[in-house]
Amino acid sequence: MELRHLKYFLAVAEELNFTKASEKLFISQPPLSRQIAELEEELQAKLFIRNNKKVELTEAGKYFEKEVKSIFQDLERISVKTKKIGENVSGEFRIAYISSIYSSTISELIKHLKLQFPYVSFKLFEVSTTKQIDALEQSKIELGIIRSPIQSPKIKAQLWFKDGFSVVYNKRLIRIDSEKEIPNLKEETFVFFNKDYAPHYHEVLLELCAFYGFTPKIIHEANNINSIVQLVKNGLGISIVPSNIAKNNQDTELAFIELKKVNLKTDVSIITLKEDDSEITKTAVDFLLNKSGSH
């Protein structure tokens, strides 16, 4: 029994028509019928009931179809895994991150990985949390860095660090001397993350404002933390951003006040596929976890 026998069998089982199956396989019908007959002879079981009107699977054929499909799924999984192992030597390793956590640490990670795996092409993508989860499940990325909890049976999440929140404002246009003055911001206009783009994060920001006793006047929304900070700098309003942004921002026009009274933090997590045990992934995760103290 060869793989081609199984492929031919599946084609006939799916089409239930030898003519259509032969067209799908780009072979003529007589050789296809001969291959199926050989398979039935080897298995010593009839797989199809044939008559002039139609082709049907026998009970044995139905069982065989289910098992053969499972074999091909296993082969696909084995092929993907083999490719992953091969990428330890050469190939591509894709890392996604959300805009609000980008820092010099991610640049350092790429430099570190390039030294360890010189023949691998490392690529960085700025991607929202939701899209990262989909991409990882579909093996379109190898590692992600997200904010907010996830629920996926395929994904392993490891806490990188807990991030607080800070108010950011243009100090040429507004003055806030301390956290005590935050409730007075109810008259100010706010720039926030787009609700559809980052729903969990959007809700957290509303919770923060509620804690200080007001509902924010949101006049502009953006999908990127750098855009939000730039809009604040341009005088379109104030915002609440992760404290990690404050630590990595050197702009002299901007000021940040950390919200320490409210005990609300978000988890920044490193996500990988549960079955991914490649050396590159392990090296990348270990590097980031060892750097968590710098946040």
From TrEMBL:
GO cellular component: protein-DNA complex
Keyword set, alphabetical order: DNA-binding, Transcription, Transcription regulation
CDD domains recorded: PBP2_LTTR_aromatics_like (cd08414)
Pfam family, one: LysR_substrate
Single annotated GO MF: DNA-binding transcription factor activity
Domain HTH lysR-type: 1-58
Source organism superkingdom: Bacteria
Family under the similarity heading: Belongs to the LysR transcriptional regulatory family.
Name of the protein this chain belongs to: DNA-binding transcriptional LysR family regulator
Biological classification of the source: Bacteria, Pseudomonadati, Bacteroidota, Flavobacteriia, Flavobacteriales
